[in-house]
């Protein structure tokens, strides 16, 4: 892994007032942990720009005026909540025989098949935390996504390496090619149209059955029964006026 040299000055005065004075002078108060005890020092603010404002991973070589040098890795940064200026930086001393945990950037290479077919590439993890000896720390973790089709995923278990160990659960998804949202909406609309068509067909078949039933019921009626009854009542009510007149 590449390293950046930071020329620092050891400091004995610690505390809020001393740290504030350093910041006013363009210096950043820092602490180096991991050795026999914490080592307080300061360095110019501009010396950390390449170490902080970058997507790449670097180790640091902290060099002091007395020719002492320490290999370290950036552990924590404190920023001002309003101005975003760096307030404090913590480093951790690296030892050749001691493993260190560090976030390593992920680099994707290749043109995905799924993306060519209209899928969307999603990067779930832009950095992966690993644990390794300083000499085995990689500059980045490379993933070839050329064979990724729509719906395919790359899990952290597929990136296992003998030189380092991933500090993530086995089911962690690093990247994936997802179905485009527009295609999902189209499929849903098609399904709804199919359901509506099936519903209309079922209603038509139901109406046809009802009309058939109504026809058969009309055929089963006997209207002549009522007419016959009315005819009988009329014939019974007739009188014989000829006979009555003679009498």
Spell out the blueprint of helices and strands.
Layout: E1 3-7, E2 9-10, H1 16-24, E3 27-33, E4 39-44, H2 49-52, E5 59-63, E6 69-79, E7 86-93, E8 100-109, H3 113-116, E9 120-123, E10 127-132, E11 141-144, E12 153-155, E13 165-166, E14 173-178, H4 181-219, H5 224-236, H6 241-246
User: Can you tell me the CATH architecture of the largest domain?
Assistant: Beta Barrel
N-to-C terminal Cα separation, in Å?
A: 144 Å
CATH class of the largest domain: Mainly Beta
Largest sheet strand order: 1-5-6-7-3-4-2
Shape: elongated
Q: CATH H-level name of the largest domain... which superfamily?
A: Ribosomal Protein L25, Chain P
Question: What's the count of strands?
Answer: 14
**CATH fold group of the largest domain:** Ribosomal Protein L25, Chain P
**SSE string:** EEHEEHEEEEHEEEEEEHHH
Number of domains: 2
Could you tell me the radius of gyration in angstroms? 44 Å
Q: Structural class given helices, strands, pairing?
A: alpha+beta
Largest sheet: 7 strands, mixed
> Which regions have little confidence, pLDDT < 50, spanning 5+ residues?
225-247
Given the structure, what is the number of helices?
A: 6
Strand portion, in percent? 25-35%
Helicity level, as a percent range? 25-40%
Description:
- By secondary structure, the protein is an alpha+beta fold.
- The protein folds into 2 domains: 3-94, Ribosomal Protein L25, Chain P (Beta Barrel); 101-182, Ribosomal protein L25, C-terminal domain (RNA Polymerase Alpha Subunit, Chain A, domain 2, Beta Complex), CATH 2.170.120.
- Helix content is 30%, strand content 32%.
- The chain is built from 6 helices and 14 strands.
- The strands form 3 sheets. The chain has a 7-stranded mixed sheet with strand order 1-5-6-7-3-4-2, covered by helices on one side. It has a 4-stranded mixed sheet with strand order 11-8-10-13, with no helix packed on it. Strands 9-14-12 form a 3-stranded antiparallel sheet, with no helix packed on it.
- The chain is elongated and about 75 Å long.
């Amino acid at each position: 892994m590449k390293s950046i040299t930071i020329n620092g000055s050891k400091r004995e005065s610690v505390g809020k007032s001393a740290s504030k004075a350093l910041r006013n002078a363009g210096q950043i108060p820092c602490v180096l942990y991991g050795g026999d005890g914490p080592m307080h020092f300061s360095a110019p603010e501009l010396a950390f720009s390449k170490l902080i404002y970058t997507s790449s991973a670097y180790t640091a070589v902290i060099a002091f005026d007395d020719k002492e040098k320490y290999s370290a890795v950036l552990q924590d940064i404190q920023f001002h909540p309003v101005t975003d200026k760096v307030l404090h930086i913590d480093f951790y001393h690296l030892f050749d025989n001691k493993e260190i945990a560090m976030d390593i950037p992920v680099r994707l290479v290749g043109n995905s098949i799924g993306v060519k077919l209209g899928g969307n590439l999603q990067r779930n993890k832009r950095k992966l935390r690993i644990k390794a000896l300083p000499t085995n720390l990689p500059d980045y973790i490379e993933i070839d996504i050329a064979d990724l089709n729509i719906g395919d995923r790359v899990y952290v278990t597929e990136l296992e390496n003998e030189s380092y160990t991933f500090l993530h659960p086995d089911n962690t998804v690093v990247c994936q090619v997802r179905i485009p949202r527009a295609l999902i909406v189209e499929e849903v609309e098609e399904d709804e149209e199919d359901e509506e068509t099936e519903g209309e067909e079922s209603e038509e078949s139901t109406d046809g059955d009802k009309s058939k039933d109504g026809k058969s019921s009309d055929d089963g009626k006997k209207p002549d029964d009522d007419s016959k009854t009315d005819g009988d009542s009329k014939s019974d009510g007739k009188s014989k006026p000829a006979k009555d007149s003679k009498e």
